[in-house]
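During the no-cost extension, the postdoctoral fellow (Dr. R.K.) reprocessed legacy sequence entries with the updated structure-token encoder. One reprocessed record is reproduced below for audit purposes.
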Amino acid sequence: MAAPKKGRRPAGGQSRPGRALALILIAMVALTGGMFWSGHTTPRLGIDLAGGTSITLKAKAEPGKEDAVNETNMNTAVGIIDRRVNGLGVSEAEVQTQGKENIIVNIPRGVNEKQAREQVGTTAQLYFRPVLTYAPSQQPAPDASSSASPKPSASGATADSGKKDDKSATPSSSASTQGRAVSEALKAPSPTPTASGSATPKSSDSPKPSATPSADPAASALEQKFAALNCLDPKQRAAAGQGVKPEDSTVACGKNAIGQWEKYLLGPAEVDGKDVDNAKGVLDQQRGMWIVNMEFTEAGAKKFSQITSKLSQQQEPQNQFAIVLDGEVVSAPSVRTTLSANAEISGSFTQQSAQDLGNILSYGALPLSFDTQSVDTVTAALGGEQLQAGLIAGAIGLALVVLYLVIYYRGLSFVALLSLLASAILTYVIMSLLGPAIGFALNLPAVCGAIVAIGITADSFIVYFERIRDEIREGRTLRPAVERAWPRARRTILVSDFVSFLAAAVLFVVTVGKVQGFAFTLGLTTLLDVVVVFLFTKPLMTLLARTKFYGEGHAWSGLDPKRLGAKPPLRRSRRVSAPVDSPKEA
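Re-encoded structure tokens follow.
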């Protein structure tokens, strides 16, 4: 006897809708937990909602360097301005390019506008300062005369990069000698040689206290500042070199090759960024390593020759000069011989790090300057009014959608409202997480994109509901109608959402500034619409079709066959023929 055939699942059927619902609920709980764990429970607001200052800068090339306004230098300028503005204590400032020669700086409220304009409107402050001493920031030095992890040096007309992680440890000169050198350098405008001997670098791995403390109150105060400096604290790093004149000694922070912060005690600036004529990272074919070549102006070559002549006679670390950009040490090469118009910085450079340092040095040489095109101030009150108006508009639109769903779809509006709530929760949580993750800021255009998304999401529900109703009108009961309607509705929803997402992607690519916020939000909510419809609306509808209220077509379910004008089920009738007695009667 043949076994009975199993019933075939209806096309588009979903045998286990509970799994899909569990998946999306777990994702919602995980994202919400991540939002609270990160501490960012609200979306980051843009300048038009939070208030602040928007500054537009236009780049211009110096005479003879007309090709300097290029993508590389513009990106370097963005990085420098971003670091400078965030040094004011603003962790959410936005710096971005607009077109080929404009930079937009959006600074939220709480920052002095005059100070901000001075910071972003001036060119990079680049100085070459002699290193008096340095120490790892993780190990506070008891005195300014300490030495730290060794820095490599090079022979010939080169200066070896201090970013190389050389672990050789050779005893250095006495602590008292270094202590006197630091004290004398703090008093004098330029470092004074205190020890002669081999140019081979010698250093110790741990700081040593000075045997001869400085008698100068100013020098002593600077030594105490160096000892107390903690470069692991962003606020202390930003304030370390603020307000220091070029002719004064100072303290600064910088990273070594392995990314660890080190603190430096530096002498007066001997060479200015204006003295650098050109610098670029190149590959040395003979040695197979990346280096940075520097060319100085005529005046700069004389200054650099004088300072390297003095530094080459010092013991480490006082034979190093620090390249200080906006108060931060970007490199600290050591010197073994007198250098002149051309210098080479070598070490453990990668292609990117060599090119970045070359760009920094070239930018400090003023290949670009900026003119302030406009400064717009957005008050917090105006931003609050705009946000309130946007929220009111969104609430009115949502209320109209809900009213329409309740009146026309009755019980089906419950499914639509739960789906809208799931979409709203996912949108809010993801926007809150994207703020600290990628710097996404919710501005007015983004709010508009979220309001438009309400209609897009509701449209997907309506398409599915109407497909189900069409199946019921054809005489089918609810459970098979739900499954048969899904493939047709799914195709329509995917095509509609694909068109919306494509429009958002194109708008995001071809526009700049705040309009990108609208495009980004529209694209994000369109993707979430697909997720909600597939993993929430369809499974929920499958479960509700098994209930008595919806399955039997209650008058308030929105699926009443009589109200929808359903046709009676089609039944085929058999033709009954009379018996034939004889061929003649037939």
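The longest strand covers residues 126-136. Confidence is low (pLDDT under 50) at residues 1-7, 139-213, 570-577. The remaining legacy entries will be reprocessed before the final report is submitted.
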